[in-house]
Design brief:
single chain, mainly alpha, 2 strands
């Protein structure tokens, strides 16, 4: 009964936040909201299904096990909303994954090569199949060494010894890449957290990257194509993003790179929505330009034929 109360409370809390959301269509564009919906709806659905299939025995037992495994994970994921710095870890791994294909290809070559050498060197009574040799190679490279499979012949011991040294050298490469990426991200943590906060609140209000040029045009008082800090701060206040004056100043410095007194919409989209920058301005460039109509006062007189 207590679990039903918890799940019902989570469902009610998510539903109320959905009702008070300024733009309900944008509610599901945020990852945290989707996690909250899943953490509330899935356990409650599984509990109802488990009660409905209780007379069936095995099916109810299977649903109960799925529920016991899924509920703690989903409830723990709900706490991601409070960990703003989780974005830093995501950014670090995103940069490190650029080198992942080459590392995986190299790992596949090492595994297949040494598995073949071990399979040839060892007797079939010790390593009967090639997958068994691959298992020994993988646990050796991962520096786990369960000890369930070990080389018995002299040649096998020499091959595995070489593999241990090679694995230590190889594993230092991805660890170094991830460490360097995280160090770089950590230096820029204030900037990245502020941009992520701005991005989430911007989307929560129902705005997208395509709306930025129109918003700039609306708040550009002197119509010079750029916003001063005063105009920029006024735009953030009108959008009701909950950005303080200090954070607005930091955002302005990020968008101008600290070297300009004004910012244009292209700079904001490039920094805030880099993935959609090209699509947004390709769309604007493809629009036909409207030529102003000639004034009747400046029109040339039509000569009579």
């Amino acid at each position: 009964i207590l679990e039903f109360v918890f799940d019902g409370s989570f469902m009610l809390e998510t539903f109320l936040r959905f009702l008070v959301c300024p733009h309900r269509t944008a509610f599901f564009s945020l990852v945290h909201n989707n996690i909250d919906v899943l953490a509330a709806a899935l356990p409650l659905s599984l509990r109802i299904a488990a009660l409905a299939t209780l007379p069936l025995g095995d099916k109810a037992h299977l649903l109960s096990k799925c529920l016991d495994c899924a509920t703690p994970v989903l409830r723990l994921l709900k706490l991601l909303r409070g960990f703003e710095s989780f974005t830093l870890l995501y950014e670090a791994f995103k940069h490190a994954f650029e080198a992942l294909p080459v590392l995986l290809f190299t790992l596949a070559i090492i595994v297949l090569s040494f598995s073949s050498f071990i399979f040839i060197a060892e007797s079939r009574s010790n390593i009967p199949t090639l997958p068994k040799a691959m298992w020994l190679t993988i646990v050796t490279i991962g520096t786990v060494g369960f000890g369930d499979v070990v080389p018995m012949t002299s040649a096998g011991i020499v091959i595995v010894s070489i593999l241990v040294i090679l694995a230590a050298l190889y594993m230092s490469i991805p660890l170094g890449i991830v460490g360097a990426a995280f160090s770089k991200v950590w230096v820029e943590r204030d900037r990245l957290n502020l941009l992520q906060r701005m991005r989430m609140r911007f989307r929560a209000r129902g705005y997208t990257a395509q709306d930025v040029p129109a918003l700039f045009l609306t708040h550009d008082v002197d119509q010079d194509g750029e916003l001063t800090f005063g105009e920029f701060a006024m735009m953030l206040e009108d959008l009701q993003l909950g950005i303080s004056h200090r954070d607005a100043l930091k955002l302005f410095e990020v968008f101008t790179d600290g070297g300009s007194a004004a910012v244009n919409d292209e700079a904001v989209v490039r920094v805030l929505f880099p993935a959609t920058y090209a699509a947004v301005y390709a769309e604007f460039e493809s629009l036909p330009s409207v030529q102003p109509e000639a004034s009747m006062d400046n029109s040339e007189p039509i000569e009579a034929v």
